[in-house]
Amino acid sequence: MPAPNSQKRRSPSPKRITKPRSAAEIYEIFNRFRQQRPEPKGELDYVNVFTLLVAVVLSAQATDAGVNKATKRLFELADTPEKMLALGEDQVRELIKTIGLYRNKAKNVIALSEKLIAEFGGEVPTAREALESLPGVGRKTANVVLNIAFGEITHAVDTHVFRVANRLRIAPGKNVLQVELGLEKAVPAEFGRHAHHWLILHGRYTCKALRPACETCVVTDLCDSPDKRIA
């Protein structure tokens, strides 16, 4: 019988490799992603650039499916900053109350609508600095809007992108900014437009946090993550 307060010796956790992959390996990974999903799309519903912006703001700490359920009626009633402002914070709050942090998000939606009208003629700006000046809009949200609405090559790093970029060693990093800057350097230009969608979808449906579906992964033979579930 072990002595009181004694601790069992645990096997050391598998060492996580943090060295970025070679350019050839990264090219192969994205080439396979492209073959799997030639035209990847974001899963938030929207009808124009303004509603895309609002949807992305609402999606923070919420699922795309949950946001889509809430915004269906919201966007039917208000698809411009002027209509959103006329709707009012109380009504916006009521329509999005199924989304996490809905009270603060309703305030931000009204505030950003006011600022779009007052400073940008009711149009969503195309410059990062201007986007990030809007209430509720951070770097990730700006990256999504710049990429989807305006066709810029940006890398919006959410929890899925962060996990996949580290597991596959495409752009290892300890925080989202390190991963984003690493992706800017690592992703070949021909894959840049869709890279963050491929990474998000791969993380959401295959390279999941707790039980990655390695048996269906298109790059499993290239993966050396300690989280890998098959040999």
Query: What's the gyration radius in Å?
Result: 21 Å
Task: Return the average pLDDT rounded to an integer.
Answer: 92
Principal-axes geometry comes out as elongated
CATH architecture of the largest domain: Orthogonal Bundle
The ordered string of helix (H) and strand (E) elements is: HHHHHHHHHHH
Portion in strands? under 5%
Oligomeric state of the chains in view: single chain
How would you portray this structure in words?
This protein has 231 residues and is mostly helical. The chain has helices at 23-36, 49-58, 64-77, 81-87, 89-95, 102-120, 128-132, 139-150, 159-167, 176-186, 195-205. It folds into 2 domains: 23-40 and 154-222, Endonuclease Iii, domain 2; 49-150, Hypothetical protein, domain 2 (Endonuclease III, domain 1), CATH 1.10.340.
Short description:
This protein is an all-alpha fold and 231 residues long. The protein has eleven helices and no strands.
How are the SSEs placed, and which strands pair?
Layout: H1 23-36, H2 49-58, H3 64-77, H4 81-87, H5 89-95, H6 102-120, H7 128-132, H8 139-150, H9 159-167, H10 176-186, H11 195-205
Features:
single chain, 231 residues, mainly alpha, Endonuclease Iii, domain 2, Endonuclease III, domain 1, 11 helices, disordered N terminus
